[in-house]
Amino acid sequence: MKRGGFHKGLRGFWWLTLGFLYLPLIVVMLFSFNASNSAASFTGVSLRWYRRLLGNDAILSALGNSLLLAMVSSLLALMIGTLIGYGMYRHRHRKLGWLIVLIYLPIVLPDIVFGISEMTFFVKINELTGLLSPGLATMTIAHVTFQVPFVALIVYSRFVGLDPTLFEAAKDLYATPRQRVQFFMLPTLKPALISGFLLSFTLSLDDFVISFFTAGPESATLPIYIWSAIRKGVTPEINAIATLMMAAVALAALTSLVLSRRRAAS
């Protein structure tokens, strides 16, 4: 009886946790279809806010900036972070404590400190050279800076989990450096590379503080736009775009699950 009660308690706690996580999202999705401009009462179902969203050039521009920034910065972070992760593994027997500290620093620093330091750096560079005025370029550099450590640690952990003799075996089979990369390292690192890219993309798309301090007047991202909009109150248009983003994430997760199951079945 006691064990059964314990399991029932765990089940109840599980459902409470799910409700705590997902009920606010369901409320946002529900009110995105609200017929009236109210965040307190639901008066009926309507698609008017989605139509207004598609006609709102400011929101679409901010969404485009967010996607472009996330894509470019994630690709750059993936390339740089992979090289750093491989270098950490290749020279893991050396005393690289200082390097580990430098890699962890952008992760543990508060975003506001990191954002202010990036802004100060870009302003000083712009004063001295006329380059790096606030905009998507400075935002990309700032995002790559905090994305690289995550990718490097993911790639490094993947390398550490490999049998070191596999590298020697590839050499013994007379594989050239290019062949070792193409036929051994890239297929082996594929899960880590995909994870690093998706994590970087998510971090960039979600970031507000660092983007806020490094953005220019024409490079507002979606989080910056939403922050400026909710100071006047949350409108159903914000709910609508949040619903579309949640739907896109759910679709991507479902697609990944289906592809992984098909790959496992084959």
UniProtKB/TrEMBL annotation:
Q: What SUPFAM superfamilies does the record point to?
A: MetI-like
Q: Where exactly are the transmembrane stretches of this chain? A: 12-33, 58-84, 96-116, 136-160, 181-203, 238-259
> Where does this protein chiefly localize?
membrane
What organism does the UniProt record list as the source? Cobetia amphilecti
Q: What is this protein called?
A: ABC transporter permease
> Source organism's superkingdom?
Bacteria
Q: Which residues are in the ABC transmembrane type-1 domain?
A: 63-259
PROSITE patterns given in the database record: ABC_TM1
Family according to the record = Belongs to the binding-protein-dependent transport system permease family. CysTW subfamily.
Cellular location(s) = Cell membrane
Q: Which UniProt keywords apply?
A: Cell membrane, Membrane, Transmembrane, Transmembrane helix, Transport
Stated membrane topology is:
Multi-pass membrane protein
Q: What is the lineage of its organism?
A: Bacteria, Pseudomonadati, Pseudomonadota, Gammaproteobacteria, Oceanospirillales
